[in-house]
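Weekly sync, protein design subgroup
Attendees: M.S., D.O., the rotation student, P.L. (late)

Item 1: inverse folding check
M.S. brought a backbone from last month's batch and wanted to see whether the design step gives back something sensible before we order anything. D.O. pointed out we never logged the input encoding, so this time it goes straight into the notes. Structure tokens as presented (231 positions):
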């Protein structure tokens, strides 16, 4: 009886670390002015002004592993998906504003595999800065989560409302809650669209040692219970 109770407690602890599943994402958004995001952004560093950076794929920053490949700006085939800084007309535009030419951000160029961000822990919410949302081509900017859900530029424009006018010059900070558990997400831009899907991920904390200990205890308890039932 004691063993079964301990195993039950372990199972509850495991479920607590995994979060609760939901199929009704809630999106909130506002105009990003370069520094007013209500969450910490992943520090991608600074680079050469107004250009694609030489950072190779994959790269790990702040515990988040970033992989990118393919795609190309219609105005410049050499401007493929990757890490960028600054702006070049018709190729890429910094979500940090025209006065910032050196702070790095991520770009998924049209038609490629896009940019994948793998997180250090499973999440049920997502924060990021979504750059240059335009209408209607911005509707083809897409986030695909490993939980099976997708978020489009249209959804972000709708959540932001009138301040995000769809002109292609608006950058938005976006918070999405109520997601199914996911461990990574991929940003893509549809083939044939103008450049590009620019974004900046939020910083996601790595699991603390205490959380890892709880998870380990939960897994061990479930293993003991399974062996007991088998015996």
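Designed sequence read out in the meeting:
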């Amino acid at each position: 009886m004691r063993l079964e109770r301990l195993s039950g407690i372990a199972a509850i602890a495991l479920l607590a670390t995994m979060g609760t599943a939901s199929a009704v994402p809630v999106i909130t958004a506002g105009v990003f002015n370069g520094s007013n995001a209500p969450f910490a952004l992943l520090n991608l560093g600074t680079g050469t002004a107004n250009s694609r950076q030489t950072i190779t794929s994959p790269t790990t920053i702040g515990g988040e592993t970033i992989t990118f490949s393919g795609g190309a700006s219609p105005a410049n085939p050499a401007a493929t998906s990757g890490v960028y800084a600054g702006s070049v007309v018709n190729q890429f535009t910094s979500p940090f504003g025209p006065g910032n030419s050196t702070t790095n951000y991520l770009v998924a160029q049209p038609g490629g595999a896009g940019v994948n961000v793998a997180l250090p822990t499973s999440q049920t919410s997502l924060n990021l800065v979504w750059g240059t949302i335009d209408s209607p081509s911005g509707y083809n900017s897409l986030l695909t989560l490993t939980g099976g859900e997708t978020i489009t530029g249209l959804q972000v424009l709708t959540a932001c409302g009138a301040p995000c006018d769809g002109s292609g010059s608006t950058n938005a900070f976006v918070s999405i809650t109520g997601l199914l558990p996911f461990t990574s997400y991929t940003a893509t831009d549809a083939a044939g669209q103008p450049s590009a899907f620019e974004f900046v991920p939020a910083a996601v904390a790595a699991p603390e040692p205490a959380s890892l200990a709880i998870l380990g205890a939960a897994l061990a308890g479930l293993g003991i219970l399974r062996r007991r039932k088998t015996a």
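Discussion: The helical segments are 2-18, 153-160, 209-230. The two ends are 15 Å apart (CA to CA).
Action: P.L. to compare against the previous round before Friday.
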